[in-house]
Specification:
By secondary structure, the protein is mostly helical. 53% of the residues lie in helices and 0% in strands.
Length: 125
């Protein structure tokens, strides 16, 4: 079990406390707003740097990419172990900004990678 990082817990709490009235059901007609809250919580669980202003300035690659996200801590451990075994890994994400973070991580660790997303031309695929 890998929990959330301190930064993720802080962002998660802020998201919930901001919309506590809605979460308690006071505005039952705001289903769209509730779905937005769920999306914000998903972003928080993936990586807090998905929120504008969360990443420290100046923007640099470093261990903070890993330590600020529980999922990245686990991924870092897994990828190091799999690389030793010369395995290939395929990672999917629905969020292109998460792919940006993963790309920064791969560069930081010196891992070879190939990013394929919606902006990749069919010739390059």
């Amino acid at each position: 079990f890998i929990g959330m990082s301190e930064m993720q817990i802080q962002w998660y709490s802020n998201i919930l406390s901001k919309d506590i009235v809605l979460l308690n059901g006071a505005n039952s007609g705001k289903k769209v707003r509730l779905l937005n809250i769920v999306m914000q919580l998903r972003k928080c669980c993936n990586h807090p740097y998905l929120f504008n202003g969360a990443e420290p300035e100046p923007y640099t690659n470093g261990e903070h990419l890993v330590t600020t996200s529980g999922k990245m801590v686990l991924l870092d451990k897994l990828l190091k172990k799999l690389k030793k075994g010369r395995h290939r890994v395929l990672i999917f994400s629905q969020m292109t900004r998460m792919l940006d973070i993963l790309e920064d991580y791969m560069v930081m660790r010196g891992f070879l990678y190939c990013r394929i997303d919606g902006s990749t031309t069919s010739e390059d695929r």
